[in-house]
Structures are given as C-alpha cells and as structure tokens.
Amino acid sequence: MDDLKLHDLRCFDAVATGGSFQAAAQTLHRTHPSIFAAVARLEEQLGLTLLDRGGYRVNLTEEGRLFHRRAQLALREVEHLKDYAGQLASGEETILRVVIGDVCPRPGILGLLSRFFAGRPRTRLHLDYEAISGPVERLMDGEADLVFHRANPSDPHLERIDLCEVAFMPVVAPGFLPLEIGHDVTPEAMRPFTQCVIRDTARRPSSENFFVLDGAHSCSVPDHAMKKELILHGLAWGHLPGWLIEDELRDGRLLSIAGRHIPGRTETVAAVRRRDKPHGPAAKALWQHLQA
Q1: Domain limits for position 151
Q2: What is the mean pLDDT of the chain?
Q3: Which residue intervals of the chain are DSSP H helices?
Q4: Residue 152: burial class (beta carbons within 10 Å; 0-12, 13-18, 19+)
Q5: 125 plus 83 within the same structural domain
C-alpha cells in the first residue's frame, strides 16, 4: 500500500469507466499493455481482484465496484489539490469572504454574486449575514473582504459602490391599533405597543438609534424576515424594507403608519471594502464586476 501509484489509480479508473483496456488506452493516450500492467500492479498491491476479465467487456468485481467509488473521490480530490496549488502560485484567492447586511435586498445582491462566481469555479464564496453595525465591524476587523450594507460615506478607511436605495417604512397589521391610522400617528400613541427591532450582531454595538422608540416595550429578532412574521401576526409593529413587503402593502395585509411624526427612512445600500488594505485578483475582479 505504501507504493500505491496515482498513475495506476488513473488507469484503473479509465478501464472501469470505459469498459475496456483499449478504451482506457485511448483516453489516457497510453498503450494497451501499459494500462494492463498498471491495473495488474494495483491489484497485486491491494490484494484484491478488481476486474473480471472473463467476458468480452471488462467488468468490475464487487470489490472493484466498491474500490472504484472511493478511488474516484480520491482522484477528484487530487485534481482539486492541483487547482488549489495553481491558485496559490498565481496569487488568486481560493476564498472570498462576503457579508450581506440586514438592509440589503437579498434577491438582487445574491443574483450579482451568482453571476460572478459562476465564472470563477476555483474561488469559493464564504457568505455571512450580519445586522446593524455587524457588517462594517467584520470588515474593519479583517474578517470580510467585502460587505453589502450601508456605510458612512465620510469614513476615509472605506471605499464604496452605491448599488441601490432601500425605503424603510413603519407598518402594522390591520386591527393592531385601536386608533384610526392616519398621517398624525405620534410616538406617544405608539409607546404602549410592542415594537420589533433587529438585533445588532456586532461585538461592539453602535450607539446609533435605528428606528427605536424611546420608552416603548420592544422585542428583538435576528432578521427582517422574522420581524415581518411577527408584525403580520399582530404581535408588534416596526420598520420594514419596502422590497420585502410590496405584496403585503398592496393587498392590505400590512398598513403603513408613516407620517410627519414617525417617518420612514431611505438607506443607500453599497458594496463596501477597505481602502487601506490590499486586495487579491479575485476580490479586484468582483469589485470591477459590481462597478459594471
């Protein structure tokens, strides 16, 4: 077993796949005798009969079928290892770490990423979700190459590509409020009702107040999908992104209470990266893809 050769495994795989020594010889551009010798050597080293040579076509024995399945996995892993070494040699990243923030319209952002990574099969996407100040913290702590989120445009450490604007609006389910819904709903009128907010995932949370009503009872959730469910079921009220609730607003399952006292808010979603950090070829290519 110590002298098991990769060449012999490839020859055996070619015979098992092609069904004959001749087919394997043509596939590997080798002579028929060299393929025959390689498989015989492999069988001797393993102490197994891998092929039944009694018929017109070469068939796998039961041991050969089981061994072939594992051999194919090993051969694929070797090919992946060669690709990985090639990426390391060329300086191209094998993994890009991307964080999607809670304000992002996920279908559009995931579509952008899908189109990019479809053309780069050798670079894997490591994708995470963070909320509130979590995405930028991950970026500044060196745990992400790129984030999709809002970011302070005056921060000299950050470079951004503005992608879209997302409107947030305060909404309730029909019947949630015992008062008439109009443009004059005040914070004082809403204070007795539970407000649903997104939990900040940052290790060092920001002091910035994102739609939180002082003095009101609140419940927290990890993302807007869960927040939407609570509001739809009449368990709370809160601000939700317009892209997530278009259907519910249209058919009346959610009602906007936006007005002069409790306004909505528009956030600019951007691709954000560190300006003060070098970027590899794959990260640069993704940045150019987003600019285009």
Answers
A1: 95-163+269-291
A2: 89
A3: 6-18, 21-28, 32-46, 62-90, 106-118, 134-140, 187-190, 224-232, 246-251, 281-291
A4: exposed
A5: no
- Tell me, yes or no, if the pTM score tops 0.85: no
CATH code at position 255: 3.40.190.290
Task: Name the token pair of 167.
Answer: 């409107």
What average pLDDT does this structure show over 52-71?
Answer: 88
Q: Which residue, of 42, 68, 90, is where some domain finishes?
A: 90
Domain end, chosen from 90, 114, 133, is at 90
Which token pair is 251? 């058919």
- Which residue from 16, 9, 11 is spatially nearest to 58, judged by alpha carbons? 16
- Could you please report the per-residue DSSP string of 245-280? SHHHHHHTSSEE--SSSS--EEEEEEEEEESSS---
More confident residue, 161 or 277: 161
> Once rounded to an integer, what is the mean pLDDT over residues 262-285?
90
